[in-house]
Amino acid sequence: METPKTTEFAHIGKSVIIKGELSGSEDLYVDGQVEGTIQLQGNSLIIGDSGHVRANVNAKGVVVQGKLEGDIQATERAELKKSAVAVGDIITQRVSIEEGAYFKGKIEVQRESGRSSTSAASAGSGSQGKPAGN
Amino acid sequence: MASVAHSFMKLFRSSGGAGEESGATQAARRLTRRSSGLAELAKVLETDGTLCVLDLGYTSPANIRYFTERGHKIYSEDLLLSSTDPDLLTRDELGNAALDSKRFLTENLAFPSGQFDLVLCWNLPDYLDETLVKPVVGRFWTLLKPGGMLLAFFHTREAGPDAPCYRYHIVGPDTLEMQHIEPRRELRKGPTGVAHTSVGAGFSLQRVFNNRHIENLFRDFSSIRFFLARDNVREVLVVR
CA-based angle A129:A130:A134, to the nearest 5? Predict the structure, then answer.
């Protein structure tokens, strides 16, 4: 996955270290180190290849390409790319895990009430799989 | 713990691990087998309720998908990989090298009692270090709900000492895909007694259980069923 354009995502670079509560109302790309909590309700978080996050994450969508130690609460979707190392619990509507990703923890798919009961999880094999039901 | 996991993953990738193989190569390594034990579990999985499943194999997107699609919760714990943590190395009462089973259980199977409806052991007991097998099985009994089930695979003697270690992916109610596990980090001690790691040829079969051994291993469980498969694997389904 290419690094998103800085105009699309707020960007935390590789050399940046942040400790504390991180919150915002825009999409965020983390390639540095974050320790604490990340609150991005309604927005997306991408943890880049070099990113190392030790925090619980609350966002609309979460994509992990680097390291995450913490729980993910994603209102729409959580993705672990093949380079991901994720330790923690994931609660989301849709989850996608690529072959090669390392995951330790719980995954719970909570579907939005009123939606039809279609698959809420997809599995990739080297490339992102399209979620069934989409 | 995540730093250890990250080191593992770096080692896998630098050694040409699964993540760097082409899709065609990966697909070529997968074998399909029917599983009678899984077929029995499928009857339980079609319940309307939410089951809590513990998958003790390598992270499997297919398994996660299979259970979450059916509305169940799944916990993923790669115990075989975790057992290669160099920090587990210790000495027993006689001064022999051993793995710290208490630490292993604390770091990898620290769940509330009676949490799980289903534990997928796969081939774990065949490849796990001797010092960990009984403590881990004892912990399974604690973690399972009354009536909870555990599925494990054991090689027969005919499988031979070089039986490869596979990952198991659920692709149907009674069908598994087997994928050979890539080279792993091995625990070794150097001449000075200091633990160090190296890339080995894969997990080695540690022992062959016969039926009596298996019955003894799961003696605290209420029932045990055996399913013998053509690939010299004995599938065992136990009920807590």
Answer: 160
Chain A touched by B59 (CB under 8 Å): yes
Q: Domain spanning B30-239: which CATH class is it, in words? A: alpha beta
**B214 is written with which tokens?**
């298996």
B25: confidence class by pLDDT, cuts 50, 70, 90 = low
Confirm if B105 and B132 have CB atoms less than 8 A apart: no
Distance from CA of A51 to the nearest CA of B (A): 12
What is the tens place of the pLDDT at every residue in B132-172?
Answer: 999 999 999 999 999 999 999 999 887 777 888 899 999 99
Report chain A's mean pLDDT, rounded to a whole number: 84
Helix, strand or coil for residue A87? strand
B215, B219, B221, B224 alpha-carbon torsion, rounded to 10°: 20
Q: In chain A, whose CA is at the least distance from the CA of B7?
A: A85
Give B240's contacts (C-beta < 8 A, 6+ positions apart). Answer: B141, B144, B145, B146, B147, B148, B149, B150, B221, B222
Q: What is the mean pLDDT of each run of 10 residues along chain A (134 residues)?
A: 63 96 96 97 96 97 97 97 96 95 95 50 43 36
CA distance A56 to A39: 8
Please state the domain extents for chain B: 30-239
Q: Residue B220: left if φ>0, alpha if ψ -120 to 50, beta else—which one? A: alpha
User: How many angstroms separate the CA atoms of B181 and B205, rounded?
Assistant: 13
pLDDT one-digit tens code per residue, A71-98 = 999 999 999 999 999 999 999 999 999 9
A to B CB pairs, distance under 8 Å = 91
